[in-house]
Write a structure and sequence with these properties.
The structure holds two protein chains of two kinds. Chain A is about 40% helix and about 25% strand. Chain A is of the alpha/beta class. Chain A has helices at about 40-50, 75-80, 100-115, 120-130, 135-140, 150-160, 180-195, 210-215, 230-235, 240-255; strands at about 5-10, 15-25, 30-35, 55-65, 65-70, 85-90, 170, 200-205, 215-220, 225-230. The longest helix of chain B is centred in the C-terminal third of the chain and has 38 residues, at about 180-215. Classes of the chains: A alpha/beta, B mainly alpha. The interface of A and B includes residues 91, 94 and 98 of A.
Chain lengths: ~270, ~290
Amino acid sequence: MSLVVKNLRIEIGERDVVDDVSFSVPEGARVGLIGESGSGKSLTALAVLGLLPDGARASGSILWNGREILGLPDRELARLRGDDIGMVFQEPRTALNPVRTVGRQIGESVRIHEGVSRREALRRAVAEAERVALPDPERIVSRYPHQLSGGQRQRVAIAMALACRPRLLIADEPTTALDVTIQAGVLSLLRSLVQDAGMSLVFITHDLAVLAQVATHAVVLEHGRVVEEGAVTDLLRAPTSVVTQALLRDATATLWHPELPPRGVVRDETEETP
Amino acid sequence: MTTLRRLWSLGTGRFGILIVALVVVTAVVSLFWTPFDPAAVDARVRWSAPSWPHVLGTDNSGRDIASLLMAGARTTVVVAVGAGAVASVLGIVLAALGSLTARWIRESVAVLVDILIAFPVLIIAMMISAVWGGSLAVVILSVGIGFGVNIARVTRPELRRVLHSDFVLAGRASGLSTGQNLTRHLLPNVAPVFIVQLSWGMAVAVLAEAGLSYLGFGAPVTQPSWGVLLSDLQAYIAVHPLTVVWPGLAITLTVLGLNLLGDALREAADPTLGERTPAARTHVPGVVA
């Protein structure tokens, strides 16, 4: 169960937004695609599922277990989506249907791919909700997305993606839209789920600090090209490309240390925020 | 059936349901029973005031107005349901063609809808009736087509908006086919907009039938209809003003009921609106009530 992307090129109009990208994800590997916005990392992920927007054309090769899936008809791809390959999106606020209950959305792919009854799908949804550590799974499945917090919604999205036990999970910036305090919980959940199931993971992010927590291997993209790749530990220790160095600088800059006033100095009252 | 429960909990929804149910039940009952034969003429009781056994009185030829109203409800229901069905099918098909297909098809459909929307529905219905004779089918088709175009016009951009939302993409990513996406994600999300248009279309169909029948272009005079009744009675409005009130009231209440029901349905179909209590909705920070 491996994914091999070779010389992937995606054109929108006359512009190459992804140009000659190659990487591979062996079984059980956790690979990060990292780069700034517009570097083509999301499009690369969408191309794997055949979900490129209208007007985008992909060429090259995407092998899933040795089978070429680039250019497969939509019906064939629909069989892989959700069943073999699951995906979690960035914005949990918009990635869930506002007018359907959480349980029906989690049970969706089970219903499609395994053809189970509605009741069985709901039972599975409860089990999946429990697996992603949603509080009170029995009750939460009958709630609507707007009744959940951001972190809970992202857990629902993860449960949706994993309901059919895919062999590969693609996570597109799954923690970017969340509060910093929630991020860590979702990240560790994602990592433990992936590890326990022996799934492969493609994790997309612009934050090296986040990537370091989940991935073992990374591909650094800039303007649709691969500028560096290797083990995450190597990238952190000795980044060779300018892009990686900048990403490392950004990531370490977030480890903010407050400069405390020297002892005994009375703080200026005017600096107090109301 | 949480939507239905929410609908009933809304005051307007309950009123709408009751009115619409009353009209439908009356129409069904009139198929088997009316107090008098609506066509029976009785010269002895011409212009009888509301009294027993003629609870709403009689008209110039002694026909029982209550029975005529009951029988007329049939026409109203047939027209409203017929026009609603034509409008829904046409509206959804046009909206789907105008948003889910290849670019050149959807652009042409959008232009077609914009052209069709410029045609005055009632005047065309009158023209058709004037040339080929009036019938309910003409009313149903003209109002149905007219409002179908309206529905398409309003639903199409909504469908486009939902089509580009993340949850539709997420749906495809979990293996939904285009058809499954349509029934699970797209239609439920455009339903609120669609329902309001549809209920408004059905209300207009009721009005249009009454109006066209009143003018002699709708139901044939032999068929009991509120519009025909209204036009029969209004000749004597100066002498017997009360008789005109009954068909007028029936038409007004039905249109009001349909509109309120549509409004309440829209509110009930949207789970994000259902939560808030009326107090929370009217609360304005900083304003002392």
